[in-house]
Amino acid sequence: QKLTLNLGLRYDLHVSRIERFDRLLNFSRTTINPVTGTAGAFLFVGRNTGSRHQSDDDRNNFGPRLGFAYRISDKTVVRGGGAINFISPFNEGDTNAGLGLSPTFSTRGVNNQASSTTPTISISNPFPAGLVPPAGDTPGLAALVGDSGSFVDRRYPTPEFFAWNLGIQRELRSNLLVEIAYAGSKGNKLAGPAIELNHLRPEHLALGDSLRAMVPNPFLGKITSGPLSTAQVERQLLLRPFPQFISVVQQGVHDYFSNYHSLQVRVEQRVTAGFSILGAYTFSKLIDNGPGFGEAGGSPQNVYDRASEKVVSGEDIPHRLVASYLYELPFGRGKRYLSTGLAGALLGGWQISGISTFSQERPLVVTATGGAFLPGTRRPDLKGDPALPGDQRSFLRWFNTDAFASPPTAFSFGSVPRTLARTRRPGFQIWDLSIQKDTIVKENYTIQFRCELFNAFNKTNFLGPGTALGLGNFGQISAARPARQIQFALKFIF
Q1: How deeply is 425 buried, as exposed, middle or buried, from its count of CB atoms within 10 A (0-12, 13-18, 19+)?
Q2: Tag placement on the chain: N or C end, fewer CB within 10 Å?
């Protein structure tokens, strides 16, 4: 009588894609390329692999779940639960590059003007340099040698989330409920941005400007087009992991993770004398090793040192309070005051409702311009504390810009972490209100008037400052969330 259990088991199977003509790509880091004799070759799915599927299906996605509620007393209940959830793999094929179709499509750039007055193309001859026919799968393991390509890895696991919570609910008085809970989650095999596999290793960056030196090309005569077909090439091209290619991009990387913990407090006052309120406060921390949606600096600074990317997430919001409320004026038909007469008709049927949000904002992601042959998003060096006391902050200098400096050389990584947990965008507060009146014309016929105000008090909520070292807006705030917006509606209900 006091204990309720909810047990479940879910199975998810995401079958990887098949293309009608087997034009999809994988990549092998160990297969010897028949053109250059070096390791690394693109594989055509269904021709160079044992399956027509672009990746191996993840078939062990069993998601158990448990929920329970235990009644300690008539006014106190303990609730909790946990589950393993699976989500669809990232990059289901919205672009050619994301599909891994590199050899089967081609592009041709054109320059419309040879000078300021002489066009080089016309409607009758729009491609004077000709079109590049797609190579298709004819080259086999020699595909894209001397060129660039993207692929989807055979290992393409289904992202998974472990989620759990434990809380206690207490009825303080009639219609007033308070709940305190802990909730957490752990994400594994999460999707993230594509990664370039053909970057120089960090130890090679110590060669500095000599990376640009021209050296004899060992692939001369083997590669017949592109930057790798000339008698001499830059040294840096030959020091890459797969020197027979310009670029090798892995799409839909699934090796990111997240870790979330939160304390949640909820207060609910059900409708009493026409008034109700629901308030929720969350104190949380989110750690991950990959950028969230909208986070600047998408790719890791050093793809060979992914461990250093583990920091407080760019989506972390430690404090957030949201309250929704409703108040019906006690006038008019069926109410306490002025239930009849003209005054009751005019004052009756009014209600005010709204949602108020008070939130801390996300940490800053500071990047640096410049850099040569670096694997990913470059970051500056940290020379001091980037945080400024509240009385020293301004919209022209939101954080301590003197705490950052460019790395000593164009071939150096910066020491700034991926996010700055103590230096954040400005927090915000938003009041969205609604004023509504229902007027009963006669039985089953009602006219409803509604006025909705978004950011009702026209509070200025600023967006984040410029975070790219070397640009003119570095540290400056120059934009804000929308100002107050008002809309009216009239509805006839019958």
Answers
A1: middle
A2: N
Which contacts of 206-211 are long-range, i.e. CB under 8 A and separated by 24 or more positions?
Answer: 206/411, 207/235, 207/411, 208/409, 208/411, 210/235, 211/235, 211/236, 211/239, 211/372, 211/373, 211/411
pLDDT tens, residue order, the chain (494 aa): 999 999 999 999 888 888 888 888 899 999 999 999 999 999 999 888 888 988 888 899 999 999 999 999 999 999 999 999 998 775 554 445 467 777 777 766 666 655 566 677 788 887 777 777 777 788 889 999 998 888 988 888 889 999 999 999 999 988 999 999 999 999 999 887 788 899 999 999 999 999 999 999 999 999 988 889 999 999 999 999 999 999 999 887 888 899 999 999 999 999 888 899 999 999 999 999 887 654 655 678 888 888 888 999 999 999 999 999 999 988 877 777 777 777 777 888 899 999 999 999 999 999 998 888 887 788 999 999 999 998 899 999 999 999 999 999 989 999 999 999 999 999 999 999 999 998 888 888 999 999 999 999 999 999 999 999 989 999 999 999 999 999 999 999 98
What are the CA-CA distances from residue 321 to residues 111, 313, 464 (Å)?
A: 54, 20, 20
Largest interatomic CA distance in the chain: 99
* DSSP notation for 343-390: HHHHHTTEEEEEEEEEE--PEE--EE---SS-SS----EE-S-----G
In this prediction the pTM is 0.86
Q: Which of 424, 465, 166, 432 is nearest to 317 (CA)?
A: 424
Beta bridge partners of 192: 253
Q: Which residue has the tokens 């984040």?
A: 464
DSSP state letter for 159 = P
Eight-state DSSP code of residue 260:
E
CA distance 264 to 281: 6
Q: What are phi and psi of 389, to 5 degrees?
A: -60, 150
Specify the residue for token string 């799968």: 137
Provide the CA 387 distance to its chain's centre, in angstroms.
Answer: 25
C-alpha distances in angstroms, 369 versus 212, 360, 379, 396, 444?
20, 28, 8, 20, 66
Q: Please give the structure tokens belonging to residue 170.
A: 């207490």
